[in-house]
Amino acid sequence: MSSHPVDEKLPPLRMATTGLQHVAAMYAGVVAPPLIVGAAIGLTGTDLTFLTGACLFTAGLATFLQTLGIWKIGARLPFVNGVTFAGVAPMTAIAASTHDKSDALPVIFGAVIVAGLLGFLAAPFFSKAVRFFPPVVTGTVITLIGVSLLPVAFGWAQGPDPAAHDYGAAKYLGLAGATLLLVLLLRRFTRGFVKQIAVLIGLVAGTVLALPFGLTDFGPVADADAVGFPTPFHFGAPQFHIAAILSMCVVMVVSMTESTADMLALGEIVERPADERTIAAGLRADTLGSAISPLFNGFMCSAFAQNIGLVAMTRIRSRFVVAAGGGFLVLMGLCPAAAALIAVVPRPVLGGAGVVLFGSVAASGIQTLVRAGLERDENVLIVAVSLAVGIVPITAPDFYHAFPETARIVLDSGISTGCVAAVLLNLVFNHLGGRRTRTRGTAPEAPETPGAVPLVSPQSIP
Fold this sequence. Notes:
The protein is mostly helical. The protein has helices at 12-41, 45-67, 88-97, 104-126, 135-157, 170-189, 192-196, 198-209, 219-223, 242-269, 276-292, 306-314, 319-334, 336-343, 347-370, 377-395, 405-411, 414-430, and strands at 81-83, 301-303. Helices cover 64% and strands 1% of the residues. The longest helix has 30 residues, at 12-41.
């Protein structure tokens, strides 16, 4: 009996190159939070480099937990894990409220450890919400994930520094467009292995194309150390402050909500629907990875939605490919020079590739919505309102400016707000009063016990 493509082990060369492609797609998302938080604290260049390497190292460990798994830990799906951006605002707020800046990171690390351990204990209970995610909800959330990520790609395409006078200049947009065009041409006119690593080829070619314009800087590679290890508690032993812990617990709830949505999305794409057990195991990996991360000077970890687009586009569904990517992350954390080499890729090049990756996620969501029973007006309303709520932080970033900072941690995440809206509206229209969702093409069934909303339609089961 042949194994599922998720459990397929590819030849070494394909494993390495496709794994590296995953790292290239998510590198900027991993290094951005430590750079922002480190700058807010006022770290020196040496400490900032150390913090960034530590986050890469812990992202690799968390990716191993998620893809390979141990015991009941790990979704065993092709997920890349890394530092969640949802924690940036509260971490900078914690740093600002700490009188002695040398205590800022220990306070943050202590809060992340507690939030991670509490999240680990809550994972099996949190996962029970999976029954409230039929296709009308999962399709909406998957679409929102892609739409929410697209502005990131557009920002990258405009240049490395939003404050620069030439931000959005034609040279940046042209480089992004050339990268996008090359990826499309490779996907259209090549086959097999070359087609599967089209994004990686596009990133390398775009980086070379940027050389004559002076947009590729190899300086960080020359200045980086060849070997380095994230010494445990480099910035001091963790400190436990109630206010900081409460703040990071809120971030953990947001992160678990988004990870649940990501697992449902990826399960649909790889044709191995994520059930309650899978989600519980995946959340345990996220939360345990977050609890371990501060020991090596890293931050809270979560599944990376960016890489879902890569899986959707390449159709390489092997979790071992992503585990290989986790291996590269660990090596980059141990070898700063290797990490700096990936950082050489100009932001506009990443932006051009990001349009394909993130757009692929949104397209996967639309595919799910096709079989979500949109011939029913109620389901149309669920999708319409949930998408509108989820898009608010994208189209109007200051919409919730009058709300407390704690509330904005949730409200400023379009994925979280759209997900909550879709679940609640589905309960109101398709659940309360004994009503249940029936997708197109399925035969009528006897009424179910209240609360038993199916996760997927029969057509989505491979």
